[in-house]
């Protein structure tokens, strides 16, 4: 049924194009999970505080529980499930596996997307709050990783292993 409260939203999700007729109030997270069956991003807090719903939105990390789907018509969404090439894991996902960067795994897709986005931010020269030398933003210290990943919580407290995984992936 067409009405003023519904809109067609087109997205490219993990390389596949979709157009969905949705309520204007639906979040990008709910569109992905409920309408497209994309379950890598998780609904944790539904307030943008835990990072479980993090994806790469037009190449930048974003919490999808705070994003209205209609505001991202035409966007490209990449989830942790769409990061690898065929059966080959993305280097960040592989590092998480090798360094046991997860326990229950609930936060892992968001952690991986956030780590991939964070590494791109560093490559592009974007400083963080703890960056000491604004002329050399590429130095990936533990403090820098902790600050940049602070929006992604892990209830199992696998932070040490997540840090090791990101350091390995960065190398």
UniProtKB/TrEMBL annotation:
Name the UniProt key words of this record, in alphabetical order: 2Fe-2S, Iron, Iron-sulfur, Metal-binding, Oxidoreductase
Endpoints of the signal sequence: none
InterPro entries the UniProt entry points to: 2Fe-2S-bd (IPR002888), 2Fe-2S-bd_dom_sf (IPR036884), 2Fe-2S_ferredoxin-like_sf (IPR036010), 2Fe-2S_ferredoxin-type (IPR001041), 2Fe2S_fd_BS (IPR006058), Aldehyde_Oxdr_Iron-Sulfur (IPR052914), Beta-grasp_dom_sf (IPR012675)
Gene3D superfamilies according to UniProt = 3.10.20.30, [2Fe-2S]-binding domain
* MF annotations from Gene Ontology: 2 iron, 2 sulfur cluster binding; metal ion binding; oxidoreductase activity, acting on the aldehyde or oxo group of donors
Q: Look up the record and name the pathway of this protein.
A: Alkaloid degradation; nicotine degradation
SUPFAM superfamilies documented for this protein: 2Fe-2S ferredoxin-like (SSF54292), CO dehydrogenase ISP C-domain like (SSF47741)
Every copy of the 2Fe-2S ferredoxin-type domain together lies at 7-83
The residues forming a coiled coil are none
**Descriptive protein name:** (2Fe-2S)-binding protein
């Amino acid at each position: 049924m067409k009405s003023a409260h519904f809109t067609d939203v087109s997205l490219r999700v993990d390389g596949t194009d979709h157009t969905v007729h949705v309520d204007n109030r639906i979040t990008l997270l709910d569109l992905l999970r409920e309408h497209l069956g994309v379950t890598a991003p998780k609904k944790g807090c539904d307030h943008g505080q835990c990072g479980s719903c993090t994806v790469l939105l037009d190449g930048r990390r974003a919490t999808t529980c705070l994003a209205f789907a209609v505001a991202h018509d035409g966007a490209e969404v990449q989830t942790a499930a769409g990061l690898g090439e065929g059966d080959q894991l993305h280097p960040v996902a592989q590092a998480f596996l090798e360094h046991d960067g997860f326990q229950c795994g609930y936060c892992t897709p968001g952690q991986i997307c956030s780590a991939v986005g964070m590494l791109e931010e560093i490559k592009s020269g974007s400083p963080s709050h703890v960056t000491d030398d604004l002329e050399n933003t590429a130095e990936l210290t533990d403090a820098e990783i902790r600050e940049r990943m602070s929006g992604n919580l892990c209830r199992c407290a696998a932070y040490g292993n997540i840090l090791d995984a990101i350091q390995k992936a960065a190398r």
